[in-house]
Amino acid sequence: MQKGTQGLYQRIRKLVKCLATASLASTTVALLLVLLQGHDLAAASVSTSQTKKTVSMHSLPTSSGGLITAGPSRKKCVELPKLPLINGAFPVASGIANFEAKTRTSVSCLLEYLNGAQTWAQWVNPDLRSPYEGVAAWITAAPQSRQLVLQVDLIPANLANQSDPLGWEQSCATGQFNAYAQQLGTNLVAGGFQNSVLRLGAEMNGPWENDFVGTTAVEQNLWATCFANEVTSLRQVTGEHFLIDWNPNACYQDIPYANYYPGNAYVDIVGLDFYDISCMTPTTPVPWTQLSNLPAGLVSFETFANEHGKPLSFPEWGLMKSPRGDDPAYIKGVGSTIARGDFAFEGYFDSGNDGTLPIGPASPLSLAEYQKWF
Fold it and tell me: What residue ranges do the domains of the chain occupy?
């Protein structure tokens, strides 16, 4: 399912290069290099237990039925592992059924990615309706309660220049890409994906991204204007009901949010990708309190969301095989944060790719904690 995506370990690999270029401490670079070695990326097997869920005192309140809203809808999403094709199609329904059975939860949204486009022609024409993808049939079966959470780069890959994004940012800020954004929105609506949550420019504070915000305030301000322009164009499409999720990564780059926040008028939800790892000390286990208080971490992001009156999301979150592995305290931290906050949705990264650890037999303590909270 992660076609065209930058995996977490690919991100860290690029971060190593950035750190080396910036002549940061060699020990930090060495730590990151260690993390990239020797990880088994095979997805853990899933349980098929059909035991009825016992309602826990920790169970999260959620909206009854319906779609993700710009409020405390608290919908459960998932990134599925790669499974063998069935009749040439990715078995979305069975993948979700496996996740629901082992976690005793109900999933209403899938994480999908549109960041593999090399050109504008590919960018405006995502192949989500391809039978291979399998998502269209799943949504069509219950369109008022199922939807996609789509990662969408601001630009195709052939325009990317992480070290000097000023060129494409200036073009976008002056409206030169508006027509492409409107065409993308038109095609999504025509394909039946009009209710999608769009993670436009997700993880923009990471230098691994094609649409990285840049290192200067000028670049970051232009990025915000570009974002606003594309949102405006997407919202001009007849029949759209998109929700826009502005979505940094907690792992890297303590850039002031204000430098690249486009303004409340262009954002419905603010989301934070938040894995059980500190990218700056990736071989050292980091407890929940320390992890959430990192400079670009959860505490500062919650403060920002509250100041702007926006609901939150965890578009991507999950355990890592290393350094902590099975970590119920992390699961509890995420669950309690969602329970007490204004959260629109969360997406557990259950693919097992890129060093992540699925919920299941390989993480029994975390699975038990997940069942309590979700």
Answer: 8-36+63-373
